[in-house]
Amino acid sequence: MKQENYFRRGFKMRGEIQHLLDRDYRSEIVEAARERGNLVEAGDVTIRIADEFGFCYGVDRAVDYAFQTREKFPDRDIYITGDMIHNASMNDRLREMGIKFLSEGFDGRPDEKFDELGPEDVIILPAFGAPVDWVMKLRERGCIVVDTTCGSVLSVWKRVTRYAQKGFTSVIHGKYYHEETKATASQTTKEGGNGKFLVVRNLKETAFVTDFIRGKIDADELREKLSHGMCPGFDPDEDLKRVGVANQTTMLMKETMAVGEEIRKAMADRYGEENLDEHFDLFDTICSATQDRQDALFELLEHDLDVMVIIGGYNSSNTNNLAIIAAEKVPRSYHIADGDCIRGDLIDHKPPGSALDAREEIEESGWLPDGPVRIGLTAGASTPNSQIGLAIKNILEARGLSLDDILT
Q: What is the pLDDT of residues 275-296, one digit of tens each?
């Protein structure tokens, strides 16, 4: 792709659009809470906020570049291949700016619309990245491409590319339908790679792989169990002789490490510990921001809490994982999409542990217990401070309390 048509570092226009970012995503409430050690106390309500929460560097960068793109090309048609990040308010804001979405949801196929695009069109690749063949097709069309792929995702891509180049199959711990996982799997075809990958969702699916490696099930049974995560032409008998483990960056770290360890043990059992390096490789590719938010939540859960509130998109993998962690310790845990989900005695939330692609939202009354209440609060990496501040405001108002005490 011609360098003048491909942009990965923005347009050095942060100063011009900073006021827009501040208007849309800054929160005085959150800033006041930070000054008080991430603690909000008003009346008989105490809200403890995790030390790490909300927008990570990669998301902030992607949002920044999207705003810069609109500023740089005010008269051009601007498209994005799919969700910029998994946050509905953020994606709605891009639509308000006139940025057109080529697909929505996990099943979207924006590449089917690429033939309608040309050199005058500007295409934004989201923070999750995009499959190799999509980028190639956009290059063929001569489009202007603004690539906002997160640096942590790029690190995984490099690892998967290396696996493929040395003849290893990439076993990817992730959700096979997720945009990031699809883009990561496509990296196996780059630069002479073998194109081999297998996506496993969890330890249950990993057990099918280890059973095959140990000879407990045959190739046909493995295909029956995991065909949805296999690359085209996957041959278990050949393609699981040498494997490297990688992951979708927003998965639970402890689960990714467990997946890697289970496969390592199976390969050692089959080929011998002394030959393991010829058959197995593992590199920790968990995003640092994902890990920081999970670690901060574990620390927060060491406090006595009556209620836990987790804010972020229902289709946000990292937010869903935070909700799962919280629910294990605090039964009254509520995963809400945004601050408006709190409406006095009512709360709209997604049950922790329900499918990532589920859009189910339930309304519950009496979510806030009577008397003194201790609330923990965190937010996924794609949740702006404005939504976190709104949630805090609505929690206090649900108890008839004012923000005056924390804003003065």
A: 999 999 997 676 888 889 999 9
249 is in an annotated binding site: yes
Q: Please give the C-alpha separations between residue 319 and each of 182, 187, 315, 331, 402, in angstroms, as whole numbers.
A: 20, 26, 8, 17, 28
Are the beta carbons of 1 and 139 closer than 8 angstroms? Answer: yes
Residues in Cβ contact with 49 at an 8 Å cutoff, skipping those fewer than 6 apart: 33, 38, 39, 40, 300, 376, 377, 378, 388
Active site residue 180: yes
Q: What is the pLDDT of residues 328-375, one digit of tens each?
A: 999 999 999 999 999 999 999 999 777 655 567 999 999 999 999 999
Segments in the chain below pLDDT 50: 1
Report whether 19 belongs to an annotated binding site.
no
The domains located in the chain, with CATH, are 14-56+289-407 (3.40.1010.20), 58-150 (3.40.50.11270), 152-285 (3.40.1010.20)
Is 382 flagged in the annotation as binding? Answer: yes
Considering Cα of 73, then 78, then 83, then 88, what sign does the dihedral take? positive
Q: Cβ(110)–Cβ(82) under 8 Å?
A: yes
Among candidate residues 16, 41, 52, 180, the one labeled active-site is 180
The reply, when asked if residue 169 is annotated as ligand binding, is no
- The response to whether 354 counts as a known ligand-binding position is no
